[in-house]
Write a structure and sequence with these properties.
With 237 residues, the chain is an alpha+beta fold. It contains 11 helices and 4 strands. It folds into 2 domains: 2-107, Beta Polymerase, domain 2 (2-Layer Sandwich), CATH 3.30.460.10; 118-236.
Length: 237
């Protein structure tokens, strides 16, 4: 993780040099900061908030961002300051998730005096769970015959559904657990899910040795079924 953070800090210095006073905030977020993921499954994302985020204002930082992306880093999220403050009703899940686990590198704390509502959280949660379930179901239908492809589907989708589980816990008035196992325990209790459906993927992303998945493995089927149950609960919440 240290190398990833050092690279992000170097990016921040380059952006600050190019942007000057236009840079309001730059912070890091992602599983590399949250914990519970083995290095091979960690990601580190960058949020950039500018006073002016117009295309003309972005031109000076394009070389730095291109170099960052070529190293297979996620493309940074870029907001204008006004757009960031106006996004609380659209992105409450993402905002609260970043607020909970981030590292401020440059500028002002963008979460200070920024609030989200339970109503907006519930609306986005329902939309996101339904949309991600549709995608998961389609991917499962195509990947289930191949054990390796099924393995990647569970690994690649887990972090997204953990974000949604954290939103569920917040919606229920709780504080999400830091580790994936604790989080699944919380979400399973709230939505009456089969928590064992997530045991394989939790062990896999934590770096433990797990059995290889076979074509049409019941582990994959149980995982998808549990997400179906999560979507049904959120619909009725």
């Amino acid at each position: 993780m240290a190398n990833k953070i050092e690279s992000a800090e170097k990016l921040a210095q380059e952006l600050e040099s190019c942007l000057g006073d236009n840079l309001r905030s730059l912070l890091l977020f992602g599983t590399a900061l949250r914990g519970g993921f083995a290095p091979a499954h960690q990601d580190l994302n960058v949020l950039i908030i500018l006073d002016d985020a117009s295309t003309a204002a972005l031109r000076p930082i394009q070389p730095a961002l291109s170099a960052w992306a070529k190293k297979r880093n996620p493309v940074p999220l870029i907001f204008s300051e006004a757009g960031w403050k106006a996004s609380t009703d659209v992105f409450p899940i993402e905002i609260e998730d970043m607020r909970e686990a981030h590292r401020l590198i440059k500028g002002d704390d963008p979460f200070e005096e920024l609030t989200t509502t339970r109503a907006d959280l519930r609306q986005e949660l329902e939309r996101e769970v339904r949309g991600k379930l549709l995608q998961l179901r389609a991917e499962y239908a195509t990947r289930a015959p191949d054990g390796k492809a099924l393995t990647m589907l569970l690994i690649d989708s887990a972090s997204t559904f953990f974000v949604l589980m954290r939103a569920l816990v917040r919606l229920d008035g709780g504080e999400p657990a830091k580790d994936p196992a604790g989080l699944v325990e919380q979400a399973s209790e709230i939505a009456d899910l089969d928590k064992t459906a997530f045991e394989w993927v939790i062990q896999k992303i934590s770096g433990a040795t797990v059995k290889a998945l076979k074509p049409y493995d019941v582990i994959g089927a149980n995982y998808v079924d549990a997400i179906e149950e999560l979507a049904a609960y959120v619909d009725a919440a």
